[in-house]
Amino acid sequence: MSMKRYRSRTVSMVLCLSVMVFSGAVFSGELSKEKAAPGKNATWTEEAVKENYVMNCAPCHGETGKGNGPLAVESIGGVKPRNLNNAKLMSARTDEELFKATKLGGESVKFFGRMPSWRDTFTDAEIKQLVQYIRKNICKCEYNDKK
Ligand code: HEC
């Protein structure tokens, strides 16, 4: 009888400890994902690029890149976020142009400048990964100079 009570207390202590350890692991996993950057951190993954896109670009460009994120509704000064899903348009852009637009903002490539600059948020390596993410996962297109 008393043995049984002792055992269940042990079980709940072990459970409690493993919950603490588990949530600690989840928490630190999340932190390292936020900091993940190629070059800076060998643990960079495709998941981290996706997270960068979803957290920072999707509010305007939308998760699938169609330019219909929640901030697009406010129409940021009447300029619609670009439809990054438009393979025809995006294959007319070089990777360098997409890189420059993302790093320095819309004005740098003679757009309206409603597209913010990401220079202070991401490293060059992270911006290159974002461009690759747009190519691979959003427009599913490469640069094509045949007009
Ligand atoms: C505040 C809304 C907003 C956010 C957030 C935003 N964009 Fe944009 N983006 C725009 C707008 C609007 C344009 C159209 C050009 C302009 O007005 O400057 C644009 C254009 C672009 C272009 C140029 C496309 C072309 O036609 O060559 C690229 C590339 C791009 N965005 C990538 C990104 C990436 C990558 C992120 C996230 C790191 C991002 N954008 C976040 C609003 C946004």
Verbal overview:
- This protein has two domains: 35 residues; 97 residues, Orthogonal Bundle (Cytochrome Bc1 Complex, Chain D, domain 2), CATH 1.10.760.10.
- About 16% of the residues have low confidence.
- It is built from six helices and no strands.
- Helix 2 packs across helix 6 and helix 5 packs across helix 6.
- It is an all-alpha fold.
- The radius of gyration is 22 Å and the shape is globular.
Question: Strands, helices and their partners?
Answer:
Elements: H1 2-35, H2 46-56, H3 58-61, H4 87-90, H5 95-104, H6 124-139
Helix pairs in contact: 2-6, 5-6
The site of heme C has 24 residues, from α3 and α5.
**Main sheet overview:** none
Distance between the termini: 84 Å
| Fraction of helical residues | 40-55%
Task: Write down the domain tally.
Answer: 2
Query: Briefly, what CATH class of the largest domain?
Result: Mainly Alpha
How many beta-strand elements? 0
Radius of gyration: 22 Å
Judged by helices, strands and strand pairing, the structural class is mainly alpha
CATH architecture of the largest domain: Orthogonal Bundle
CATH superfamily of the largest domain: Cytochrome c-like domain
Bound molecules: heme C
